[in-house]
Specification:
The structure holds 3 protein chains of 3 kinds. By secondary structure, chain A is mainly α. Chain A has one domain. Chain A contains 8 helices and no strands. Chain B is mostly helical. Chain B folds into 3 domains: about 200 residues, no CATH class; about 290 residues, no CATH class; about 35 residues. Helices cover about 70% and strands about 5% of the residues of chain B. Chain B has 26 helices and 5 strands. In chain B, strand 1 and strand 2 form a beta hairpin. In chain B, about 55% of the residues are buried. By secondary structure, chain C is mainly alpha-helical. Chain C has 11 helices and 1 strand; from the N terminus they run H-H-E-H-H-H-H-H-H-H-H-H. In chain C, helix 2 runs antiparallel to helix 9, helix 7 packs antiparallel against helix 11 and helix 9 crosses helix 10. Classes of the chains: A mainly alpha, B mainly alpha, C mainly alpha. At the A-B interface, helix 4 of A face helix 17 of B.
Chain lengths: ~220, ~675, ~325
């Protein structure tokens, strides 16, 4: 089915999916910590808007609660928490990228193509208009993982982890129109707890190693 | 009948090889050789053109060759096109040759050698195209390679020329071996060595893949795809300029001919995996070729790398054609093939033009480094004008011919939306973007070449003693430039004439060609895309005329005053403050840094060089990472193997003794 | 015959409007920056002044130097006859599709760079070197955006593209959003606006386009200035009519042509305001930051293509 047979709302969802993918690319290209956090907040905002659109289009009103949760957590609470962390830990604002930035961007594009290829069999099963977004969600998850691998600072790795979770939630919302409420609340709680634990651990790591550079964690190796 | 005409062409070429031998006076012998070569070129071109237009396939068996395999010869549309190409360019080069060779002051022995091997080289190329069985093909192929080896090593006083020739011979032999194995697969599984036997043979898919791989490596080595290209930038500059024109313009196309013949005709079925491989390798060759060309300061080496880039573009067209053929869309496969063939013709024309111009410049000024040139347009206006046409054509700018073939390849890539797989669609789109990058970089490269060599002020005194070249050299360049223009303005005529080739090879031509008039090229449909080349030229002329008439000084009564250059008021600055070749390409060098092996350093001032010294050396990664280690492995294994050669006579006798024992044991 | 006259009218109209767009952008910029600037029709006066002035040529200028202004203007004028401005269905649209238009601009740029190198000064060489580098980096993004668009339109012919959007019901295509953004970024690079090149500067080390035309004076300079203004107009018309074509005349008729012209003027005014705002907000980037800007454009066009393949087609 080409996009022309979809309704306007469905086209809007597809557009939002593409914009979320764009924010993932922006995250990979960014070197400044605060801008990273802001883009992450933007991604959460887009996710919230998508949830709202799906809630109204398909009449799943429990998704409104999910949207509210996303807004509260992903757009406000966690970014503010991370910002406070950055300020208190007084870490450098510039994050260096491991490896050639151009190669990473090209690798990201290749990952998108790969995730499209990987979900081709699944696409055949769903009859919904938004089944194409499964590929985008998988791509966002993989790009989040790429972000984790390609940066040194621990704060960025939190952001990457959260992005992966964004991608998962997007898949749940767009492709299957939400998960059972219990699961969603559980996931939201998990994310909250993870964020708080990260914050606590960062202080410990910082005290122990004097910096938040995760490569320094190799000193934990037992074998030389 | 036209096949016999083609054979006459071959005979004339062979005659041009031997004719100057009995002649006593050097110049007369040279002129005679080139005249015969020119006649052979015209004959073959005519035969090829008619063969292509007729659409029929002629076949003859000559009673020479092996006793059980007489030499089969054919002339079908594909062979006709390439025969036209080879013949046409050789004819033009033979117009250039006499004055070039005579004024370069070669002595009689080397002039005779040059004549012999040029004749053999051209005859070899004709025979490769006309061959219809594997044996004749390989013999002609070897003739072509070995004759060109001697041509590359012509100026053997300089060591770098002999090194380049040796590398060329080595790689030509290696490539020839792969081609031979490829033919072997086809002949072994099939019925025999003739092409018709190979066509009718049906192979299992994995044998087809193996044959394709061997042919791709073998023909690719001769065509100059990355990473098998390392011989090109060394061999082409070493040869005399008209030979470089033949090698770059024509010999590389003969390799492309071999590849097309092998895949489309002999194997028959085209697989999408081959298409992806050919497309990606073509893409890489195009990009790397132009990036390396940008960094060269030796004019002929730059043109050699640029040939690698154009071969990459041709292979991209072929790759797209394979993809469409395997998806079952023969009209689009035909489009891809036509685009690639059109680019073959275009490249033959403008590359030969550029090499002939470069030869004129190098001969007149005695310098071959761009950093020593400048201001030549004033001293050599005709050469400069034709060279400009060559630069515009190779940069794929309307209304010249290079633009038409690149436009056709873009149109083919765009139809990638017809393919089913989304992954392949995306890769085709990215490959098209890479082609766009290549095109823009080529324009950058040739702005650099023309701007530094012909414009500005002379950077060394040697430039000032250049003057315009003789009539033959001028006319040959002008003819090629005219060809570039005509092929750019009348693309519909050319595409229509070439239709017979995809009809013969793929079974279909372009549907929409009926809708085309001479005014407009619409390869897919009028709605999809159209290019009205004659109108473009007309429009530019009208607009130019309009602007000129409205604004010409006689009507406006404003004067023109001549004065020294303003240059922001900096005062008397000499030619040394002009941009040099390395400064022009510096932004690109900095942006694409990992592509080359750059060794750049600045040395502090010394008594001899009071301003200090800036040294820049650009190396080829393929050479350092691939060939040098390969060479070391070969040397090491040779050393290990040489342990057999103990030198001790008793050991040798022991070898014979043991061999006898083993053979007796086997026999019983 | 009627249609050809209409095409001629279009070319002349665009040629005459080009300085007005340039003046309009400058006027809006000045208003935004609380400055008192020149009136929007000042460029006309500047061009007239240049035409009257004496022309000074360097002694060793070659024929290429003297011919370049005419070539550049003719090619740009030809491009302006091809772009769908106030009507579609003109015969000139069949001469060239969008890829040929890119080729036209490349031809103009080629000759301009040669003219820069002709006199043999360091500024000319520098301008030429930078110009060809930036344009090489802009090409892949531009072509990939055009490809993405033509994958939806199934054509590269500009008329067919506009016709498609006008005759289909309204859809939101994610690939169009990305391609449109990418084309906007590319257009600023091609036309030499901030943040790639500052059209108002004459400092030696910060200019690209200005460095190429440094040695020109009098009527040659007038022709080149007009050509660059026309190029900006063409890009503006192209982008607005590809993405927001409503208002354009589908068939020649006095009423529809009037509406078409009016809608084109309104759209150009709006895009002029957008350009003025972006030029006031952004600063010119140093030369080796430009590749980052252009790779952003490339990522956008790549995303556009990927969204088309993944989201829009079965």
């Amino acid at each position: 089915m080409d996009i022309v047979v979809f309704t306007l709302a469905e086209q809007l969802i597809l557009t939002l999916a593409a914009l979320m993918l764009f924010t993932s690319f922006l995250l990979l290209a960014q070197t400044r910590l605060l801008t990273l956090i802001h883009i992450f907040a933007l991604q959460g905002g887009l996710l919230c808007v998508t949830t709202l659109v799906i809630a109204f289009t398909y009449g799943r009103h429990h998704l409104l609660i999910s949207a509210a949760l996303t807004l509260g957590l992903k757009v406000f609470f966690i970014p503010i928490l991370l910002q406070r962390l950055v300020a208190r830990l007084d870490i450098k604002r510039e994050v260096e990228v491991v490896g050639n930035p151009t190669l990473i961007m090209l690798g990201a594009a290749a990952l998108v193509l790969f995730s499209y290829y990987a979900v081709l069999p699944i696409r055949e099963l769903s009859m919904l208009a938004t089944r194409n977004t499964i590929a985008i969600s998988l791509a966002i998850i993989l790009l989040g993982m790429l972000l984790i691998i390609s940066r040194r600072k621990a704060v960025v790795q939190v952001v990457g982890f959260m992005c992966m979770e964004n991608g998962l939630l997007f898949a749940a919302v767009a492709a299957t129109q939400g998960m059972p409420m219990v699961v969603e609340m559980g996931v939201a709680l998990d994310v909250l707890v993870a964020a708080i634990l990260f914050g606590i651990f960062f202080f410990q790591i910082r005290t122990e190693f004097g910096s938040l550079d995760v490569d320094k964690l190799n000193r934990l190796k037992e074998v030389d | 009948m036209y096949l016999h005409l083609a054979h006459l062409g071959v005979l004339l070429a062979l005659l041009s090889a031997v004719a100057p031998l009995p002649v006593r006076h050097v110049n007369v012998g040279v002129r005679l050789a080139f005249t015969l070569l020119g006649l052979s070129g015209l004959t073959s071109a005519y035969a090829g053109g008619v063969g292509m237009l007729s659409g029929a396939s002629l076949h003859v068996v000559l009673p020479i060759g092996l006793p059980w395999l007489h030499s089969h010869q054919h002339l079908d549309p594909l062979a006709g096109l390439f025969l036209l190409l080879v013949g046409g360019v050789s004819a033009v080069v033979s117009l250039y040759g006499p004055s070039y060779v005579i004024s370069s002051g070669t002595d009689s022995a080397s002039a005779r050698a040059l004549a012999i091997f040029t004749g053999l080289f051209v005859a070899g190329m004709y025979l490769v195209i006309l061959a219809a069985d594997a044996f004749s093909f390989m013999v002609a192929w070897e003739l072509m390679s070995v004759a060109s080896y001697f041509l590359v090593a012509h100026d053997h006083a300089q060591k770098k020329n002999t090194d380049a020739a040796f590398l060329y011979l080595l790689m030509a032999q290696a490539g020839g071996l792969f081609i031979l194995l490829g033919f072997g697969v086809l002949a072994g599984i099939g019925d025999g060595f003739t092409f018709s036997a190979m066509q009718s043979a049906s192979l299992a898919p994995h044998w087809e893949h193996i044959a394709f791989g061997l042919a791709f490596i073998g023909f690719g080595m001769k065509a100059g795809i990355v990473p098998l290209h390392v011989w090109l930038p060394q061999a082409h500059p070493a040869a005399p300029s008209h030979i470089s024109a033949l090698m770059s313009g024509v010999m590389l196309k003969v390799a492309v001919y071999g590849f097309i013949r092998f895949c489309y005709d002999l194997v028959g079925t085209l697989h999408w995996q081959w298409g992806m491989i050919v497309l990606l390798v073509g893409c890489a060759s195009a990009l790397l070729g132009v990036l390396y060309a940008l960094m060269q300061h030796d004019l002929k080496q730059l043109l050699a790398y640029s040939s690698i880039e154009n071969i990459g573009i041709i292979f991209m067209g072929l790759g797209l054609s394979f993809l469409f053929a395997s998806s079952g869309v023969p009209t689009l496969a035909a489009l891809g093939l036509l685009a690639a063939l059109y680019h073959c013709i275009n490249h033959a024309l403008f590359k030969s033009l550029l090499f002939l111009g470069a030869g004129a410049v190098i001969q007149q000024s005695g310098r071959h480094d761009l950093n020593h040139m400048g201001g030549l347009l004033r001293l050599m206006p005709i050469t400069g004008g034709c060279f400009l046409v060559g630069c515009i054509s190779i940069s794929a700018l309307p209304p010249f011919n290079g633009f038409v073939s690149e436009w056709l390849i873009f149109q083919t890539a765009l139809q990638g939306a017809e393919l089913e797989s989304g992954v392949i669609k995306s890769l085709v789109a990215v490959a098209a973007a890479a082609l766009a990058l290549t095109g823009a970089l080529v324009a950058a490269c040739f702005v650099k070449v023309f701007g530094i060599a012909f414009l500005g002020k002379a950077r060394t005194e040697d430039m000032l003693r250049s003057h315009e070249v003789s009539a033959g050299m001028k006319w040959s360049q002008a003819l090629l430039a005219l060809g570039c223009l005509l092929l750019g303005i009348f693309p519909t005529f050319i595409v229509k004439s070439m239709q017979t080739i995809p009809i013969a090879l793929l079974g279909s031509g372009l549907d929409s060609m009926g809708a085309n008039t001479w005014l407009r090229l619409t390869p897919i449909s009028i709605r999809a895309s159209s290019y009205g080349a004659p109108m473009v030229l007309f429009g530019i002329c009208i607009a130019w005329l309009g602007a000129y008439i409205l604004l010409h000084p006689r009507r406006r009564k404003t004067k023109v005053r001549f004065s020294p250059a303003w240059d922001c008021g900096f005062g008397p600055l000499g030619p040394r403050t002009q941009y040099t070749d390395s400064s022009f390409s510096q932004p690109i060098r900095r942006i694409f840094r990992p592509v080359w092996h750059i060794d750049e350093r600045v040395e502090p001032p010394t008594p001899e060089a009071r301003g200090g010294r800036y040294i820049l050396h650009i190396g080829d990664w393929a050479w350092d990472k691939l060939y040098v280690p390969l060479g070391r492995v070969i040397q090491r294994s040779a050393k290990i193997a040489s342990k057999i050669q103990g030198g001790n006579i008793r050991i040798y006798l022991a070898y014979s003794f043991f061999t006898i024992i083993v053979m007796l044991w086997i026999v019983t | 015959m009627n249609a050809w006259i209409l095409a001629l009218v279009q070319t002349t109209l665009l040629l005459l409007l080009a300085p007005l767009l340039s003046g309009w952008v400058k006027w809006v910029k000045c208003k935004l920056q609380s400055r008192r600037g020149p009136v929007p029709w000042q460029p006309y006066r500047d061009l007239a002044k240049l035409m009257r002035k004496e022309m000074v040529l360097a002694e060793h200028a070659s024929p290429i130097f003297r011919a370049t202004p005419y070539i550049v203007l003719s090619v740009t004028a030809l491009a302006s006859s091809v772009v769908p401005a106030f009507a579609i269905g003109l015969p000139t649209a069949a001469i060239a599709d969008v890829i040929v238009m890119v080729g036209f601009f490349a031809l103009a740029r080629f000759f301009l760079s040669l003219a820069g190198m002709d006199i043999g000064t360091a500024f000319g060489g520098m301008g030429a070197s930078r110009e060809v580098t930036i344009s090489s980096l802009a090409e892949p993004a531009m072509l990939l955006s055009i490809f993405t668009l033509s994958m939806t339109f199934d054509s590269t012919n500009l008329d067919s593209m506009v016709h498609f959007t006008l005759t289909q019901p309204f859809h939101i295509y994610p690939s169009f959003i990305f391609s449109g953004l990418s084309l906007l970024l590319i257009a600023t690079a091609e036309c030499g606006r901030i943040p790639i090149d500052n059209p108002a500067t004459h400092l030696e080390l910060t200019m690209m386009h200005e460095a190429l035309i440094l040695e020109y004076s009098g009527r040659h300079l007038a022709l080149l200035e007009l050509a660059s203004m026309l190029k900006m107009l063409i890009f503006g018309v192209l982008i607005t009519n590809l993405f927001v074509p409503w208002g354009i005349a589908l068939a020649p008729g006095v009423a529809s042509l009037a509406i078409g012209t009016l809608s084109m003027l309104v759209k150009l005014m709006l895009i002029g305001v957008v350009l003025a705002v972006s030029e006031s907000v952004l600063a010119k980037m140093r030369l080796f930051r430009a590749p980052e800007f252009l790779s952003l454009a490339f990522v956008l066009s790549l995303l556009g293509m990927l969204s088309h393949v993944i989201l829009e087609v079965h």
